[in-house]
Amino acid sequence: MKISREPFTLSFRLYSNSQTKATPMKQAKQELLVLSAQQGNTKAFNALVEHYHSALVKFAYRICANQQLAQDAVQEAWLKLSQQLRKLNDPRAFKSWIYRAVRWRCIDLMRRQNNNEQELTDYQQQFSDSMTETPSVSEGSLLPYINQLPDVEKQIIYLFYLNEISITEIAIILEIPIGTVKSRLNRARNQLRNIIPRDEL
């Protein structure tokens, strides 16, 4: 699939949700790619797309509970980012920036589709109900327990364990204080310890 839009020409393939998680990109390499892409280097930008696209589609799907909406949200986020990348002052913030952009594109697309403000405010419940992966060796068996957590805790568990996103970045993505992320992550861990049978730990 090719997308032509100034200032970049993007060329990337949509990844299925079943694809394995990409190896984390080293911070220094990411910063160099972002800086190069900001100077108009298409190969550098496409390298960022290639690395993050699959994880972003999965993240969007947890919010939308709709594969097509998830793919549309991510593609629109990339297109918008390609136009505004030069405005990013700190290349270290790239990952949290693109995740937050995808989150808001999901909300916009859900608003268009639902045309119902109440359904939009309940999007976090859709996020949690659609979750198909959990931070555990025995993923399938823990899903019922993960789904018992409050909505924000579920999102934090998913981002922290499956996407290996830092607490600081999660705070930016979800637009909540760092201290709140830490406390809710600890709370989620404690809740899981209490509700998961010992033979499943």
Write out the CATH superfamily name of the largest domain.
Answer: RNA polymerase sigma factor, region 2, helix turn helix motif
Q: What is the assembly state of the chains in this entry?
A: single chain
CATH names the topology of the largest domain as Rna Polymerase Sigma Factor, Chain: A
Beta-strand residue percentage = under 5%
Largest sheet: 2 strands, antiparallel
Main features:
about 200 residues; mainly alpha; Rna Polymerase Sigma Factor, Chain: A; Arc Repressor Mutant, subunit A; 10 helices; globular
Description:
The structure is a single chain. The chain has helices spanning 27-38, 42-64, 67-84, 94-114, 117-121, 123-129, 139-146, 151-162, 167-174, 178-195, and strands spanning 2-5, 8-11. It has 201 residues and is mainly alpha-helical. The protein folds into two domains: 25-130, Orthogonal Bundle (Rna Polymerase Sigma Factor, Chain: A), CATH 1.10.1740.10; 131-201, Winged helix-like DNA-binding domain superfamily/Winged helix DNA-binding domain (Arc Repressor Mutant, subunit A), CATH 1.10.10. A two-stranded antiparallel sheet has the order 1-2. A hairpin with a 2-residue loop joins β1 (2-5) and β2 (8-11). It is globular, with a radius of gyration of 17 Å. 30% of the residues are buried.
